[in-house]
Amino acid sequence: MEIKKLLFVTRFDKLRFDALQSLMDLKKAALNHVVFLNVIEREKVAMRRGTGYEKGAEIKLREKANIRFIDWAETLFEQGMEVGVYIVVGSFAAQVIQAAEKETVDLIVLSPEKKGRFEQLYSGSDITEIVHRSATPVLVYKYLFRKGPLAENPFEKPLLATNWSSASRRAVDYLKSLKAVIQEVDIVHVASEKDLKEKSAMGIQKTRKENRKKLEALCDDLEDEGITAKPHVYIGETVPEIEKAARECRSSMIIAGSPGKRSWTNRWGTSISKGLAEQSIFPILLIPPAEG
Amino acid sequence: MSKKVLIVDDDPDVRMFNSTVVEENGYIPVEASNGEEALQIIEKEPPAIVLLDVLMPKQSGIRLYRILKTDKSLVDIPVIILSGVAKRTFLRSQKALTEFGDKPVPEPENYLEKPVEPDELAKEIKRFLG
Lengths: 292, 130
What we know:
Chain A is built from ten helices and ten strands. Chain A has 292 residues and is of the alpha/beta class.
C-alpha cells in the first residue's frame, strides 16, 4: 500500500505545479516516481464541418503541455525523482484509467470536476467513472487557502471517514504506510439520524458508545504505528457531517473508502465518495476496496 | 553489415525523423518508445550507439542512462542524449541520484537539445560510428 508512483493529471488550470510540490512530502514515505498526464479532450481538436480534424490545434496543445511538463520535470529530476509523461487525445476518464494501468501507479491525483451539473447529466461524472473503474486510490485535489496562496501539505492532518467497510479498512492500512508524512489523524464515523429516530436517549448514547469503541480500537491500531489519532462520532447526513468534522478538526484532507467496481450499478447514483468529491472544499482521497 | 542505431523516444514523429536521418546515412535504425522497452532491446542485441530522449513514460532517459553507464557489459555503448530537458538538469539529476546512494556516472558522449537539425544529428552519429 505504499505510494511509490503517482499519476498527476492536470489541465494546467486547476492543478498546478505548486499542488504537486505540496505532495512531495510523500518522498519521506516512499514516493520516487511521478507521471504527468494531460488529456486533450476530443472536442478541442474534433472534426468540424469544412475543417476536418484539427491536427494543427492538436500539435499546438501538445507542445504547450510538453513545455510545461519539461519545466516541471526538470525540477523533479534534480530532486532525484523519476518522471514520466503522457500527452494524449481522447476521453478524459478513459485516458486516466489507461495511463494508471500502464504505469501501475499507486495514487491518481486530479482536480475537481470541470463538467457542470447539466453536462454530467448526459455524459456522467469523470471522477465517478474513474473512482469506480480504477482499483487505484484517487486524490481529488483542492487548494486550501489557510496559510497563503500556496497549496499546503494535504497529508499533514487528514480526516479519515469510516463506515467500517472493507475500503475503510484498506484506508487505515494506507494511512499506516504514510506515517512518515502524517502528523495527526482524526477518525470520524457518521451515524445516520434515521437509525436513531425511534431510540431513547439511552439508545442514542449506546450507539455513540459502540461506534466510539470501534473508533478507539482503530486509533490504538494507528498509534501502535506511531501515528497520533483521535476518534469522533457525528450524527446526521454523511457528506455534510464529514465536511463539518473536517472543518472542526482543521483537517488538511478527507480520506474515505469508495465503493468497489462491482457495486457500481448506477453512474448517476449519489454515493458518499461522489458527494465528497463534488461538494467538499477539502482535497479528497478515495480508497477503493482491495481487488478480488 | 550496417551498424544499428537505437532511437529511444516516446514521440513517434521524433522517432520517424531520427530513423530517416539514420537510414539516409547508411545505418539501421531500431526504435523504442520508452526506457523499459529500450533496455529489453539493448540486452537482447546491443546497438552501436543509442540516441536517447529524457522525458518518457515507463522509464526515463535519466534512469536508462544510469543503467547503461553502470553495467560493465553496456558501458562502452556511446549515448547521445536528444532532449528538450536542459543538459544542466540532466547532469544535476545524475548527481542527485548519486547523492541518493547510486554510483557516480560519466557524462554522455554528447548532449543535443531538441530540436536538432538533420545534418547536426548525422554528423554526431558519424563521429562515433564512422
